[in-house]
Amino acid sequence: MSSHEELRVSLGSFVLGNLDLEEHRGVEAHLRTCQACRAELALLQPLTGLLDLARTTAVDQVQASSLLEQRVLEDHRRASEAAAGSSPSGSVARRRRSRWRLGRRWSMPAAG
How does pLDDT run across 65-107, given as a tens digit for each residue? Predict the structure, then answer.
């Protein structure tokens, strides 16, 4: 790696710490003599903080999403259990409706 353009292209990897020792030293040596690459490096360096923030934010969102899902499922389970405990079973409800219909049939001729 010796040309100016190759070294300039390596600045992103340099900032992220992804160069091997020899490449890292080559970029450092080039930076001592090249104002344009030092200026570009100054623009790239803040991006590492943004990348760290993006990673942290993404992890926090996944954790929050997981917690929200657990809460919603738990609330649904509780509501289902409460509804099952408070409503009559299907056979009891059918018997009640049948008695009501039977009573209605018998009461109509008596009224007429």
Answer: 666 677 777 777 787 777 776 555 555 555 555 555 555 555 5
Task: Give the C-alpha separation, 24 to 31, whole Å.
Answer: 11
Tell me the C-alpha distance between 58 and 87, whole Å.
43
Say if residues 48 and 77 touch (Cβ distance below 8 Å): no
Model confidence, pTM? 0.43
Q: How far is CA 101 from CA 6, 95, 108, in A?
A: 90, 10, 11
Structural domains counted in the chain: 1
Residues contacting 93, CB < 8 A, separation 6+: 87
Quote the domain boundaries for residue 72.
Answer: 4-111
